[in-house]
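Researcher: Quick sanity check before group meeting.
Model: Go ahead. Protein one:
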Amino acid sequence: MSKLARTISRRGPVVGVSTLLAIILSGVAIPQANAVVKDFSCVKDGFTGYIRLSDTRTNVVVSYKINKGTNSGGNLANVLTFDNGTAPRTELVNNAARQDNVWHAMNANSPYRRGSGGFDASFTFDKSGARDPSCTAGGVV
């Protein structure tokens, strides 16, 4: 075995470090070990809207997920969040929210810090051929 091959074989963790470095450089927020994840949800007419705060104090990333159940509809739902744990209040808006039952970050490129306080989310689901149902979720974080 060549000297280079022996050096590479002894560095098994290098692949893990390289992967971690790639994740960090891609802008994906990694919650701290002591980070608290908080989820809220609401249901209306067979739709379910979910909101997640990836970390309730530092590097907060807000994500949403919409399950449209058996409803037909597009991907023009509306998601609006209000974080009263910041001053001034942090508001995030997505007027073309996907209803694909997959988590989507609303502020992945700009996580923020917060104190304690209320967090609210409003969903208006996109339903084909009918009035769009809406619901709200939230609570104290």
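Researcher: Fine. The other one?
Model: Protein two, sequence then structure:
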Amino acid sequence: MTPTEISNAITLLELNAIKCSPFDCFGNDVRKQIYAMIDVLNNQRSKEWINARYLAENEIYATNLDNVVWRSAMDARDWMDGLFEIDDLLFPEADQAQKAYDKHQIFFNKKSDFKSTQSLHVN
């Protein structure tokens, strides 16, 4: 990636940190993940550095890691290596997440209304 592309990506991630929901549905700190990505891009961190910084000793040789900050940092490194589009690194903005939640709730409310009206018609 060129310095301009990296600078633009950092700007997008900084805006994303402001506009996104602070936590994902699993309770992970999304902003912590974004700031890890910004650090990787800003300092052009290597995969070795990322492993040393974000993995605990017992995670270094694990095959299926559940470390979201490490994963985000590695994704940023992979983006710099050309494996991702920048949009793949961004988190949904808070208003988009709320709209998706509301749509989900409306669906389930309609489904429960259907069940309650269906029981009224049983003889």
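Researcher: One line on it for the slide.
Model: Residues 3-91 form one domain.
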